[in-house]
Amino acid sequence: MRSQSPWRDQVIGVDMQVPLLAGGYRLYVNLDNASSTPVLKPVLETVVRFLPWYASIHRGTGFKSKLSTWAYEEARARVLEFVGADPKEYVASFVRNTTEAVNKLAWRLGQDQRKALAVTTLMEHHSNDLPWRRHFRLLRLPLDSSGFPEFDRLEDLLSEHSGQVRLVAVTGASNVTGLVTPIHELARIAHRHGAHIFVDAAQLAPHKPIRVQGDGREDSHIDFLAFSAHKMYAPFGSGALVARRDLLREIEPFEIGGGTVLRVSTDSVIYADPPWSEEAGSPNVVGAIALAAAIHWFQTTGMSAVEAYEHELARATWEILRSIPEVDLYGPAEFDAGPDRLGVFSFNLRGWHHAKLAAVLAYEFGIGVRNGCFCAQPYVKALLGVNRSLEEKLMERSREGTTIPTPGAVRVSLGFYNSLDEVQYLGQALSRLATGEFEPRPYRLTAEGEYIPEDGDHDFAGSFRRLVADWGFPTGGMGGV
Question: Is 345 helix (H, G, I), strand (E, B) or coil?
């Protein structure tokens, strides 16, 4: 495959140098895109061009206010178009992120339904688990030996609890193993049993085309879907909840106040129709514009082209990781297992604690990864084979406030701007650490469970002061930074 991404120059920060412990600087390698992506240049350019025209939206009579209102509603239309949703049937409301969307939806669907059931899986991010726990009784699909949920058991589970399951909530793609969920097949099963389906598309949206209205088969539509702009190269504090219009009209909004109503008297209130009923207070107009700009980039570039490049890079990364004998890679034993997968890989290096390995990669090689359980503790512990006894011990220690090294893994996650050169460099670093060819400097474990160099950490305060000075911002009055 090509060694460089054709869109690398479209991303801000890919040419940044970071300091190494041995001295000097090296081009930063960011392999932590599943957490958050950097900014697309066209997104930032759009935001900068829009800011002089920004004003309060809806009901303002000035030109700037009307222009901002038009741009905000156009951004909403772009969201629906991006996920293949007919605006006659679906609405898109703006939220801070996917987590907020799930919490709002769980509250709304859970009203007067505290004894209702929801089905989810052990593969979920905490944000697609904990909110449902609060409002529903959960049934979870178990994992098979490869770490993939046993979706073939969904039909039997819904039949067993006939009429009691209100929702099936699944991730579109795992943030731990990159496994992609057959969402439309699950939708058909859920609808056959009178349940709705919600898809957490935070990991799916930047990598795969989405069509909430289905794949052409009857009842394959998605009822609710959410995703975040900060995982789509537009980290300006926005996200979207896409929902069937008729389902949102059934229940009172989660947040109420300015912007959510048609009429208010001292005794009663008439709420506005969705999506306006879902957006209390002054919305993040700039964030919505940024998300729309990112969507426009994906649409004009072609999601199929992005998908093809990332798939090729993911396969190369898989092969590099599998070629290192000391690497234990979690998930299916074959790259092509399951319907599809993203460039997200979790692993451990034998003889290394995951937190120390991540630290050494950062401080001594300039490679940014993530370690721990990736906000998916039940899933990661299942992949690691953590038994019930150890899990209870970890919970008890946490209740006591005692920090101990916890089970986890290192995660590499790719974006369309990453290159084959970068993943080959990662492979070389891991091989040198595995064989002892590279001897890292001494590290110590902090009270927060992180490893830092024994001699101390970087001077981040000084670095930030220099950065804001370069940006032309005043350096005083920022909390001592």
Answer: strand
- Same domain flag for 435 and 320: yes
What's the CATH code of the domain at 418? Answer: 3.90.1150.10
Q: Which residue has the tokens 């390698």?
A: 29
Determine the pLDDT at residue 1. 65
Report DSSP letters for 114-144, one per residue.
Answer: TT-EEEEETT--GGGTHHHHHHSEEEEE-B-
Rounded distance, CA 163 to CA 152, Å?
A: 19
Is 399 within the bounds of a domain? no
Indicate which residue of 95, 118, 179, 375 is catalytic.
Answer: 375
Tokens of 46: 């759009």
The residues facing 261 across adjacent strands are 271
Clarify whether 375 is annotated catalytic: yes
Q: What is the pTM of this model?
A: 0.93
Q: Judging by beta carbons within 10 Å of its beta carbon (0-12, 13-18, 19+), is residue 458 exposed, middle or buried?
A: middle
Encode pLDDT of 83-125 as tens digits: 999 999 999 999 999 999 999 999 988 875 555 899 999 999 9
* 293 lies in the same domain as 190: yes
